[in-house]
Write the structure tokens for this entry.
Amino acid sequence: MANSFVKRKGKNEMGYKAFPYRIMAWICDHQYQRLRDESRAHGYQVAVVLRWLLLPQASSCLYPGSLDGADGMMRRPFPSGTVGGELRPAGTRHGIRLSDAEYEVITRAAMMRGVTRATYVSEILAEQFDLAERLGWPLPEDITNVSVDADARQMLHELEEDASVHR
């Protein structure tokens, strides 16, 4: 019974959380429904596909420097409190759980673009949804929690190797 409690809490057999980070993303309702339908049609959980869509294509898209100032940079300024801007289509905020490696990759990708993590997630998902619609949602085979995390770890490893070559 204790083992099922651990799994419900998001922890694996070794006692640590598999997805300790959460990023909130606003997703248009019709895009989320399409993502859900396509994920299920391919036999995937929506969360796995979302995390896979967020990963950049290569380690060259990642900020190579120190992350010491990342938390300060990622903080959004207080909103002005005034009404303005464009109205967006109806949507819902969704929490996307991330592993340590995935969170670092998204942080570095956001820093490379000079935006916050939330802005990066919104921009990338909009780009990915648009591309998926144009290409007919060609999801690869065998996307799993382990494979998405391994892809993120591989990107970080490549980034580290590139940094050691340039020293």
In short: The first strand starts at residue 21 and ends at 28.
